[in-house]
Amino acid sequence: MRVPVAIFVAVSRNNVIGRDGDMPWRLSTDLKRFKAMTLGKPMVVGRKTLLSFGGKPLPGRPHVVVTRNADFHVDGAEIATSLEAALSRAQAIAAETGAEEIGILGGGEIYAQAIHLADRLYLTHVDTDISDGDTFFPAVDPAVFEKVEEIAVPAGEKDTYPTRFAIYHRRSASN
């Protein structure tokens, strides 16, 4: 049985997700929710994004790293040379561990490929425009994804901006 694939991303009003290999904001409140939502689930992540985590997998989540570099190695993660291979391995890990969802954590190139394969989107809409961003998230097509939930989240003391956390589900072919 195929486990649903979900994208996790924080995105500005102008679709920026990154700047200079990092996120252009600090969102402690969102990171806490992200951790709670992803613990125990297989994560698919691009090499550059993994390096932005400090070069090691996030604790408590099996990682499959997508890279064209066949010599790339990181302790505690598996390597795949394509998104399709990574998702196949993540499906096997989910079956072995009983995980109910697979997470895709970026970056930009991975998201661009994965949005066509995702069943769910967990988007943190960051209430700002980033003028100097260099990594972007593709536009969410409302004909493909339906917003099923949205919660306004005021900026906490360790958050740069207020956010809106939204969940989107892929529309069925019969809609």
TrEMBL record:
EC class name: oxidoreductase
Gene Ontology MF terms: dihydrofolate reductase activity; NADP binding
GO cellular component: cytosol
Record carries keyword Oxidoreductase: yes
Pathway(s) of this molecule: Cofactor biosynthesis; tetrahydrofolate biosynthesis; 5,6,7,8-tetrahydrofolate from 7,8-dihydrofolate: step 1/1
The DHFR domain, residue ranges: 4-170
SUPFAM superfamilies: Dihydrofolate reductase-like
Pfam families xrefs: DHFR_1 (PF00186)
Keywords: NADP, One-carbon metabolism, Oxidoreductase
Enzyme Commission numbers on file: 1.5.1.3
Record's keyword annotation contains Oxidoreductase: yes
Catalytic activity field: (6S)-5,6,7,8-tetrahydrofolate + NADP(+) = 7,8-dihydrofolate + NADPH + H(+)
BP terms from Gene Ontology: dihydrofolate metabolic process; folic acid metabolic process; one-carbon metabolic process; tetrahydrofolate biosynthetic process
Function: Key enzyme in folate metabolism. Catalyzes an essential reaction for de novo glycine and purine synthesis, and for DNA precursor synthesis.
Similarity section: Belongs to the dihydrofolate reductase family.
PANTHER family assigned to the protein according to its UniProt record, in alphabetical order: DIHYDROFOLATE REDUCTASE (PTHR48069:SF3)
Protein name as it appears in the record: Dihydrofolate reductase
